[in-house]
Amino acid sequence: MVDNVTSFFKPRLIVIYLYILFSFIAKPPIMPEIYVTYSLYLVIGYAMLIIVKDKTIYWNKFLTWSLSIMALCFFSTIYAKNMSVTFDRIYYLFIPIALSFAITQLITSEKDIKNILIVLAIAGGILYINMLKYGLFETTERLGQEFAGNANAFASMVLFSTIAAMCTIYLSKNKILWIVMIAIIIANYHMLILSEGRKFLIAPLLFLFILMFKSSGFKFNRLAIIGIVAIIAIPIIWNILVNINVVPDTLVRRIEMTFAILEGRSGYMGEGDLERQRMIVKGFDYFTMSPIWGNGHANFSYLFSLEDTGGHIGHFSHNNYIELLCNLGIIGFLVYYAFYYKTLKSTAKIQTKANNIVFTYIIVLMILEFGIVSYYLFYLLQILICIASLAIFDRKKIKIQKT
């Protein structure tokens, strides 16, 4: 027990825990947002101290991939349709890469990764408690719109906490920890429902489904059983939640519109869905203007603003594939998804719990990317991918020579 407590509260992990926690709750009225910046610099600074102390740098394939993407983005300033837009977005690439580099120096074992997943899950529970404490559930908008400035960004955080809780249950044999994680999943689902993000509601179920399928060795008889149970259970649970007024009416309508779209009844598409469809079509049109190298990092936003009567630069296509093709062309698209391909190939045939989690996570992420733009490297998304790469690829040790 003492060894477990000691391994959990290692100083090099505590700084990561603080960053994760503040990323979830450091927003008014809970606490000032500046704590996120402080904790970010703390992680990077502590990693630098470790490097100086040990005279060793650790490197992995994820960092090589990240720097390749960043190099392409820098290169795109040469031909970008709007160079200032590209330069403005470069900072948002540098910080996640610096964070991922720091985490690579601080994590030393698979146990560290398990501990970080536990904290990532618990952060969602702490967020839920604070949302209750400060009355943030009392809102006329989608949950998270006022608190995080964007309901989908809020739902993304809660989604990662939910997936981390599922991973913890999968990796741990501690029954008390299971109970805590199940409670967090239920609380997180309450927040996801009120945030009204359809893809974020489906993603954890999809993660669980694929993880069970992968763990079975891709046995289709197991898949059939899981599918039948899901088909029966999900509608029953959904109807119960709707009837007891847990689900907002707007979300019910959005779900109904989704089924209508899947059935080919496009006339039932809501205004938001029509706008996203228009962005995707426009994004593909912009891609055809410069298919090899693209139009420059973050330049979908600029090109779309030229057709927006308000001229506002800040929109994105809500589709990672289209955003990449538009901004960095076929070259950038292939470089970006090379890491995904390498990870899937490395984990598909090997049956370990770490491999199963990473394989499932990448598949779910690729499905989500039809509705999100992860290429802009949200911090928490990068923490999970960095952890995934550490679980699969051995770190290279680079000794710093004395001068």
Features:
mainly alpha; 403 residues
The secondary structure category is: mainly alpha
Total tally of structural domains: 1
Query: Per DSSP, what share of the residues sits in E-state strands of 2 or more residues?
Result: under 5%
What is the terminal-to-terminal distance? 44 Å
What is the arithmetic mean of pLDDT? 84
Order of helices and strands: HHHEHHHHHHHHHHHHHHE
Shape: globular
Q: How large is the count of helical segments?
A: 17
Major sheet summary line: 2 strands, antiparallel
Give the % helix.
over 70%
Low-confidence stretches: none
User: Spatial order of the strands in the main sheet?
Assistant: 1-2
How are the SSEs placed, and which strands pair?
Layout: H1 2-8, H2 11-25, H3 34-54, E1 56-59, H4 61-75, H5 83-106, H6 110-133, H7 145-148, H8 151-171, H9 175-195, H10 198-215, H11 220-243, H12 249-262, H13 271-289, H14 299-305, H15 320-347, H16 353-368, H17 379-392, E2 396-399
Antiparallel strand pairs: 1-2
Helix pairs in contact: 2-3, 2-6, 3-5, 4-5, 4-15, 5-17, 6-8, 6-9, 8-9, 8-10, 10-16, 13-15, 15-16, 16-17
Task: Describe this structure as you would to a colleague.
With 403 residues, the protein is mainly α. The protein has one domain (2-399). Helices cover 72% and strands 2% of the residues. It is built from 17 helices and two strands. Strands 1-2 form a two-stranded antiparallel ribbon. Helix 2 (11-25) packs parallel to helix 6 and helix 5 (83-106) crosses helix 17 (379-392). The radius of gyration is 22 Å and the shape is globular. The N and C termini lie far apart (44 Å).
